[in-house]
Specification:
The complex is a heterodimer of chains A (364) and B (661).
Chain A lengths: L1 H21 L10 H22 L4 H20 L10 H8 L1 H13 L9 H6 L1 H4 L2 H14 L4 H13 L3 H14 L4 H14 L6 H13 L4 H13 L3 H14 L7 H12 L2 H14 L2 H21 L4 H13 L3 H14 L4 H13 L4
Helix pairs in contact in A: 1-4, 2-3, 8-9, 9-10, 10-11, 11-12, 12-13, 13-14, 14-15, 17-18, 18-19, 18-20, 19-20
Chain B lengths: L3 H29 L2 H30 L6 H6 L6 H6 L5 H22 L5 H25 L23 H30 L4 H32 L10 H26 L3 H23 L13 H25 L14 H33 L7 H24 L7 H7 L1 H17 L6 H23 L7 H10 L2 H26 L1 E7 L4 E4 L2 E12 L3 E12 L2 E13 L5 E4 L1 E5 L2 E10 L5 E9 L2 H18 L22
Helix pairs in contact in B: 1-2, 1-6, 2-5, 2-6, 5-6, 5-7, 6-7, 6-11, 7-8, 7-9, 7-10, 8-9, 8-19, 9-10, 9-12, 10-11, 12-13, 13-16, 15-16, 16-18, 18-19
The chains are: A mainly alpha (364), B alpha+beta (661).
Chain lengths: 364, 661
């Protein structure tokens, strides 16, 4: 469709360029070059007369000027005119082909004919129709800016931010939910959890206080029990942490989805780091292929999070790009590749390494 | 859905092809004397304008509708921005400003195509071809390195916003004026190169190169004044000119363009100084290209240098080499073939204009050295030095002073051979009045340095000299007033324009001298309710409150300005923090009177609930911009002169004897 418009534009341009060439008046109707000079000189003489009339120029000065201009006028009149030549209109017609010959390759190089315009207002209006999450979030944000006390709005936003991993925004959303909703253990736990995520997995003291508060309201809430234990572990209170994890594990049903997490944390506390790796590897060897993949992916995700927190780590980025490519996550590999390039944009050495890897992995 | 952005993109790329056509076909046509091919340049130049205007309109459309599928919009706009700044955001960034640059270039090209009927066809064809080559170079630059139509898929929901410091009405319209000046000089350049190719300077050439230069000069004057006005009240440093490299980059072409406007008169009236004028035309445009290079390549760190990209710098460097190097080579090769024109005595109108040209060029050289020497030094040795106002005061000032003294005198000298004694005699009254002003200033300002009376006398000399010029031309007080009035109306507009522009220069000089000598600066920490004297005024810090704008929030401080017990004004100075960048800016509180401004900037909080405040009384500061506007009006008068409205000669072979061959 858009190519029809482009074709029409090109045709119009060619037409507009060719029309005067084809329709050009014969050379004989063109005033000779000397005529232009003569016109200027005649006007200068007339101007001189006006000056004399007004008395803004002395008589002697005027005479000298008149002589000079007249001499030039005569010189111009004596100049031979140029003989008209055969028109090379055909050459101009050929030259017109320059335009599409230049335009087409240039446009194919940088154009995106398939992409539509996305005016902001239109996008917002069509957000529901298109299931456009980003636009929907923005819409609710806009609404909440005017009505910051609309609980329902925050309840929509908070999980959306979680999905988008916008943790700082999620913290704000849950803060508002806690502020507006009747006291509720789950809400407070979600609020505190968002803080932990925004803090790269560390349970800060205020977050820990919140989890303790939750446990006084509902001592069985799994999320609060887990983070409370985790916080104790991070605070170095290993015994208390182990006790909390063990108690939690005991109360958890056998099919609880958080069991593996608990077990991993407890192993993490009891075993020395290399032993944990061995243990993990041993577990991995017993896993099905898809479980293995999932585990590796989660490790790679962990690496990515670490890099997000501390991006000045070239080896980390190279490992991440390679791992993503090997796992077949081409999109994520490309994203990591771009981020790495941006991160090291001022480091020629690093850039060379990154782009070499990009070539190897065919994601460039 | 048909994408407006892609249509704009395609139109821009079509313009590349049309520019190539406009470059090649008329040039070959003029070489062969082929009328059809020469005419081809006319439609190409108009088409060029149409295509680039479509591209520009498409980009404006993307900005106005906040189309974040266009990368340029994402990087430089935001939905919360007021409409004015959405539009000005189009040229508030590198890509868009380059697009504006070529749009104005195309506008000038089309103007030559449409209004150039009074030029010999060959000359017009060559001028348009050179214009086409400039357009081609810059369009390729845009498409290859700075394409504003790069798309993003999927588009983000919100943009990054425009640099808050650029969100200001004066800045919104400053670049279009400045570019109109820069780019307008391309016409003089194209005329010069065409003359070199032809090996001749026609009377028509001499007559028509001046009005085009004058247009460029007028826009440059207003553009620089607007930039200075903007930095005065937006940056909050209280100054009007900082000898910042980017400011110098616009001053240098202005100085050379001023020289060119004057030397072109000599070419037109006396058929002399042709080679010099051709060289000046090349230099003027070269300096505007250098200005573009200084700002765009990111060589300079400055608030203006919003494009930092070495690849672009390399491309622009190539453009510079081709156009400046190429035209100067052509000049060296062809200039000797241009016939020298009329002779004149040293003391004559021509002589004074030559002196004017020399002084302006030396002044430009001083600025050039002061601007580029630190850069060159940094590149070669890595040393960073800063060449500041003291250098420019010591070099630029002494060069310009004799030039200013010369201005009224030159206007009274006759062409060819003048009489300096007679000229001085006719200027005696102006001289006495100027010296009187100097004496009054000396008497009033006992503590002032010698510069105050001298500077003010020079300013007065310029203004009274301009008045004396018009008085002499209308024989004021020698004939009845009514006759003088008739004479005034009958005067060529260019004569009135000259006097007006020179008077404007005097007004500007008065403003500059006044503010550099009598400015009052007060830096003080104030608590709400406290006052401080600023010159003859008392400024009281009333208090502050919160502030919410469309895309910023912050604090607004309220001040009252009193003289004695009389309340003159209530001022607000703001500290804004813009979303989404979090960047702070200040808004100055200004109380403007004809004789000066009270200028209040609210600073940071200090201990004990006080705020640091900077306050100025800037005497006569508005004379600077008023002077620039008067100069612009002078140019406007000059350009409306009837001699520029002479049309094209008619083919008159049957009526007029054909010259013997």
């Amino acid at each position: 469709m858009i190519w029809i418009v482009f074709a029409a534009m090109t045709a119009a341009v060619l037409g507009a360029l060719l029309w005067p060439v084809v329709k050009s008046k014969p050379a004989a109707t063109q005033a000779e070059r000397a005529a232009y000079d003569q016109a200027v000189f005649r006007d200068q003489l007339a101007e001189l007369d006006r000056d004399v009339e007004r008395g803004t120029i002395g008589q002697a000065e005027a005479d000298a000027a008149r002589n000079e201009i007249s001499r030039r006028l005569i010189a111009a009149t004596e100049e031979p005119g140029r003989k008209p030549v055969a028109s090379f209109a055909w050459a101009a017609i050929a030259a017109v082909l320059i335009v599409p010959a230049v335009a087409l390759p240039l446009y194919l190089r940088s154009g995106n004919p398939q992409l539509p315009d996305v005016p902001h207002a239109q996008r917002m209006a069509d957000a529901e129709k298109n299931g456009d999450m980003e636009a929907l979030i923005a819409k609710v944000e806009q609404h909440l800016e005017a009505n910051p006390d609309d609980l329902q709005g925050w309840q929509i936003l908070a999980p959306a931010y979680r999905r988008a991993q916008r943790w700082d925004d999620a913290v704000e959303a849950y803060r508002n939910i806690v502020r507006l909703a009747p006291p509720d253990a789950t809400n407070i736990a979600d609020f505190a959890e968002a803080q932990v995520m925004a803090n790269q997995g560390m349970v800060s003291a205020p977050a820990h206080d919140l989890f303790r508060q939750v446990l006084t309201i509902d001592p069985t809430l799994p999320k609060a029990r887990f983070y409370n234990a985790l916080a104790l572990k991070q605070e170095g209170k290993t015994d208390e942490a182990r006790a909390a994890f063990t108690a939690f594990l005991k109360d958890s049903p056998a099919d609880a989805p958080w069991r593996p997490m608990l077990e991993a944390e407890m192993q993490d506390m009891s075993a020395k780091p290399p032993a944990l790796d061995q243990q993990t590897m041993a577990n991995a060897s017993n896993m099905s292929a898809s479980d293995q993949q999932a585990m590796i992916r989660s490790m790679v995700d962990g690496l990515e999070q670490k890099l997000a927190a501390n991006p000045d780590n070239l080896d980390g980025w190279l490992r991440l790009i390679r791992a993503r490519s090997v796992l077949g996550d081409t999109d994520k590999a490309k994203a990591a590749y771009k981020k790495a390039l941006a991160q090291f944009s001022s480091n020629q050495d690093a850039l060379a390494q990154i782009s070499a890897l990009g070539k190897d992995m065919k994601i460039e | 859905m048909i994408s407006v952005a892609e249509i704009g993109h395609f139109a821009l790329i079509l313009a590349v092809g049309v520019a190539l056509y406009q470059f090649v076909v008329p040039l070959l046509g003029a070489q062969r004397g082929d009328v059809a091919a020469m005419r081809a340049g006319i439609s190409a130049a108009i088409l060029q304008l149409v295509l680039i205007a479509i591209a520009f309109a498409a980009l404006v459309h993307a900005y106005v509708t906040s189309d974040f599928s266009v990368l340029n919009v994402v990087e430089n706009s935001h939905t919360a921005k007021p409409l004015l700044y959405k539009i000005s955001g189009v040229w508030g960034n590198h890509e868009g400003s380059m697009l504006l640059w070529v749009l104005i270039l195309a506008l000038y090209g089309a103007a030559v195509a449409v209004f150039g009927g009074n030029l010999p066809l060959e000359l017009r064809a060559r001028v348009l071809a050179i214009q086409g080559s400039i357009g081609l170079a810059f369009l390729l630059f845009i498409v290859m390195t700075s394409n504003p139509f790069i798309r993003v898929d999927p588009p983000p929901i919100e943009g990054n916003g425009l640099n808050p410091i650029l969100q200001d009405p004066a800045l919104a319209f400053h670049p279009p004026f400045l570019y109109s000046g820069y780019v307008g000089l391309s016409i003089a350049f194209a005329f010069a190169v065409a003359a070199l190719i032809e090996g001749r300077v026609d009377a028509a050439w001499a007559r028509w190169v001046r009005p085009w230069t004058l247009v460029a000069w007028m826009f440059l004057t207003v553009g620089i004044a607007m930039g200075s006005w903007w930095s005065y009240y937006e940056l909050g440093w209280g100054g009007y000119w900082f000898w910042d490299p980017v400011e110098n980059a616009s001053l240098m072409p202005w100085l050379v363009a001023t020289a060119l406007v004057h030397s072109a008169i000599v070419v037109e009236k006396r058929n002399a100084l042709k080679i010099w004028t051709v060289l000046l035309s090349i230099l003027a445009f070269s300096l505007s290209l250098v200005g573009t290079f200084l700002v765009r390549s990111g060589v300079l760190t400055s608030v203006h240098a919003f494009a930092v990209d070495p690849q672009r710098g390399a491309f622009i460097l190539m453009i510079l080499c081709v156009f400046i190097g190429g035209s100067l080579t052509l000049f060296a090769w062809r200039a000797p073939q241009l016939k020298a024109g009329g002779l004149f005595a040293p003391v004559s109108r021509e002589g004074s204009l030559v002196l004017n040209n020399l002084l302006l060029c030396v002044a430009c050289l001083a600025v050039f050295v002061g601007t580029l020497y630190p850069l060159a030094l940094e590149t070669l040795t890595g040393d960073k030095i800063s060449v500041g106002p003291p250098y420019f005061d010591l070099t630029f000032g002494p060069i310009v002073l004799p030039l200013l003294l010369l201005v009224p005198l030159g206007a009274f000298l006759a062409w060819k051979r003048g009489d300096a004694g007679l000229a001085v005699k006719r200027l005696v009254l102006a001289l006495v009045l100027a010296l009187g002003v100097g004496a009054v200033v000396f008497a009033l300002d006992v503590r002032g340095p010698w510069l105050a009376p001298v500077g003010m006398a020079v300013a007065a000399w310029l203004v009274f000299g301009a008045i004396a010029d018009i008085a002499a031309k209308t024989a004021l007080f020698k004939v009845p007033l009514a006759t003088s009035w008739h004479r005034l109306i009958g005067l060529p507009r260019s004569a009135i324009g000259t006097a007006v522009a020179h008077a404007g220069l005097g007004i500007l000089v008065a403003g500059i001298i006044a503010i550099s000598l009598w400015r009052v600066e007060v830096i003080v920490a104030l608590k709400p309710g406290e006052s401080t004297p600023v010159g003859k005024y008392t400024v009281t810090y009333v208090g502050e409150g919160p502030l919410t704008g469309p895309n910023y929030s912050g604090r607004v401080g309220t001040f009252t300005v009193k003289q004695g017990d009389e309340l003159l004004a209530t001022l607000h100075s703001e500290k804004r923090v813009f979303r989404p960048s979090g960047m702070p800016t200040t808004e100055v509180g200004l109380y403007q009177t004809w004789h000066g401004d009270v200028y209040v900037v609210m600073g940071d909080e200090t201990t004990g609930g006080a705020r640091a405040m900077r306050m100025y009384y800037n005497p006569f500061v508005n004379f600077i911009w008023m002077g620039a506007v008067v100069m612009f009006l002078g140019g406007l008068l000059s350009i409306s002169d009837r001699r520029y409205r002479v049309g094209a000669p008619k083919r008159a072979a049957g009526l007029q004897p054909v010259a013997a061959e």
